[in-house]
Amino acid sequence: MRKFFFIYFFFLLTVISSANDNKNFLNRQIKFINELYINGRYFDCIAETEKIQITENSPDIEYFIFSNYYLAGQYATVINNYNINISSDEMHFKSLLLLSGSFLKKEKYFESYETLKKFEYNELPSEYIFTMFLRRTESLILTGDNSMIDNEISKSGAFLEDNYNFKKLREELLLYKKNELKNPSYSALISAFLPGLGQCYNGYPMDGLISFTAIAATLAGGLYLRDSGKKDFSYTLFFFSGLFYGGNIYGAYNSAQAENNKELHRRRNSIISQYGSYNPGDYVDIESIFH
Q1: Of 133, 64, 135, which Cα lies nearest the Cα of 105?
Q2: Exposed, middle or buried by CB within 10 Å (0-12, 13-18, 19+), for 101?
Q3: Residue among 186, 174, 156 nearest 260 (CA)
Q4: Which of these, 110, 202, 234, 262, could form a disulfide with 255 (CB 3.0-4.6 Å)?
Q5: Interval 195-211 mean pLDDT
């Protein structure tokens, strides 16, 4: 009986010692992960966190791993490999933001917006509603689709009518609607009518002057050579005149699109400078993730 007692006691001590060792290892590992994360060593952080995730298989740890991929600029990895978790409203919300933010970084603005539409405003906890509106409109601003922005204002208004930030953001969005973007087709058309006019319309008068001068000079030179009996040389200048004319139309269309893209990014930057840009780290709490 005494022998059995000693065996049992030794076994119990072994189990307790093993448990303590595991706990100490886990605590050291969590501390190490936290240091890596704070120092921006995201790939090292991923590698060390995955050692714990093998046994834990936790949605919080999974979110943390892919947040590190995002912070490391590996947006395609998030898009292709992260599965949205719906185990709770909070996790669902964080997961959607992470995936949507990755689409936004890859300049897939409609995909970014559509990802967030998987959670309706009436399904969200009240503290998440403005953030959802902000992130949706951030994506829509970059598409230039004012009608969809109007729709978001209408759908969220019932939940945010007393929210100061919502009222302020709504006013700014409505102001953008009044300031229309350039029309690329119109820009190309007026450049076809008068070379360089489209570039002037887009706010690039020097480019317009260069286009007009290049076309006019080669055309005038070609006419002069033709009238001088040097038809072979005149054809060369006519060719370049036609080439410049086509390039002038194409350039007018592209410059309108470039100006619109610049304006849309200016609007988006104005919004995030006031209300903040998306950062998955805002939803990361190391202590709660691993305990």
Answers
A1: 135
A2: buried
A3: 186
A4: 202
A5: 86
- pLDDT tens, 155-173? 998 899 889 999 999 999 9
Cα–chain center distance at 278: 9
Two tokens, residue 197: 């006019």
Question: Is-contact 109 143, C-beta < 8 A?
Answer: yes
Per the CB < 8 A criterion, the answer to whether 191 and 252 are in contact is yes
Does 30 score more than 70 pLDDT?
Answer: yes
What is the Cα–Cα distance from 145 to 143, expressed in whole angstroms? 5
Counting every residue written for the chain, the total comes to 291
Please tell me the predicted confidence (pLDDT) of residue 268: 93
**Is the predicted pLDDT of residue 5 greater than 80, yes or no?**
no
Q: What is the pLDDT confidence band of residue 53, given thresholds at 50, 70 and 90?
A: confident
Q: Which of 240, 196, 200 is nearest to 218 (CA)?
A: 240
Spatial CA neighbour of 251 closest among 193, 183, 198: 198
Note the pLDDT of residue 73.
Answer: 95
Region 76-86: what's the mean pLDDT?
A: 92
| Sign, Cα dihedral of 67, 72, 76, 81 | negative
Closest CA to 271 of 162, 120, 135, 114: 135
Q: The tokens of 180 are what?
A: 């229309």
3-class secondary-structure state, position 286: helix
Among residues 78, 145, 98, 89, the alpha carbon closest in space to that of 120 is found at 89
